[in-house]
Design goal:
By secondary structure, the protein is mostly helical. The protein is built from twelve helices and no strands.
Length: 297
């Protein structure tokens, strides 16, 4: 989405011409370092689930889906930096067909990161709901086959939507649809939370005897959701302001923080693996075994 996802030059000019707020420019090394950390951390999460058969449960598969989304967000920035370097060195023709195609692919990765995170978090929320309130039927409802099918549908929808959003990125309805997915996810998860709260009050005794791991999973989801909102909401607001009030000095002043908002997105991919590891003893044990094996090899 050329004027919403990668608007570095446009943002700087707009902010500088219409407001007294100078654009905040961060060193590319910061983005590159954070992006590399995000890729490596989420790759470790994926390897841990692959190596430990006991982690191959619906919840951890949904967490892997979220980790893939975070990796795409980090890879997007790494590939963008590589493309810019190649262009500056003269290996890529500016505004040429290769740069245009590569830019579209990179933008698709960025949109996929957001869409994948939204759908993965929603799937984790639904999984936690079934775990808590249909504990006895959980294994018959959330089978591995059904989980894989759900993930296949999610990523098919995300891929198709991501390509469509990049192709039609200059149309206002596309930007509105892109930005509206964020609050829609929040409404969906909020409705689940409200329903869970009401059921918890009416079935307090049943809830109290549920395994602590089920409730712990709901707390983990809450933390993940809070971090996701904190890291992505500023960028979603940026997209809306750039679409509907690009010449307003107050909007331009906020848009001068574009690179800061971008860094927050990169940080989300770094923070999420720490949340998984901190909240899951099984993951921590798998990490220790992986490290110890590498030492003795």
């Amino acid at each position: 989405m050329k004027y919403t996802v990668s608007p570095n030059e446009n943002i700087s000019n707009t902010a500088g011409n219409n407001s007294d707020c100078p654009p905040v420019v961060l060193p590319e090394e910061i983005f590159f370092t954070i992006s590399m950390a995000g890729v490596l951390e989420n790759l470790i999460i994926l390897l841990a689930v692959i190596r430990n058969k006991s982690l191959r449960s619906p919840m951890y598969l949904f967490i892997c889906s979220l980790a893939v989304s975070d990796m795409l967000g980090s890879l997007y920035k790494i590939l963008e930096n590589v493309l810019i370097k190649l262009r500056d060195m003269g290996y890529v023709k500016p505004r040429g067909s290769f740069e245009t195609t590569a830019d579209d692919i990179i933008d698709c990765m960025f949109v996929l990161s957001l869409l994948g995170s939204i759908f993965s978090l929603s799937a984790i929320a639904a999984d936690r709901y079934v775990t808590i309130f249909h504990a006895l039927q959980y294994h018959s409802i959330m089978t591995l086959h059904r989980t894989v099918l759900i993930l296949a549908v999610i990523w098919t929808i995300c891929t198709g939507s991501g390509v469509a959003m990049v192709v039609f990125s200059h149309h206002v309805p596309t930007v509105v649809a892109f930005a509206s997915l964020f609050p829609l996810m929040l409404v969906f998860i909020l409705c689940l939370y409200v329903h869970m709260f009401l059921l918890a009050r009416s079935h307090a005794r049943k809830i109290s005897v549920l395994p602590r791991a089920n409730m712990k999973g709901a707390v983990t989801l809450t933390i993940l959701l809070g971090v996701f909102i904190f890291c992505w909401a500023p960028f979603v607001l940026h997209v809306l302001l750039m679409t509907f009030c690009p010449n307003n000095p107050y909007c331009a002043c906020y848009m001068s923080l574009f690179q800061v908002n971008g860094m927050l997105i990169m940080c989300n991919a770094v923070i999420d693996p720490f949340i998984y590891a901190f909240r899951s003893a099984e993951l921590r044990e798998t990490f220790k075994k992986m490290i110890s094996r590498n030492r003795y090899q």
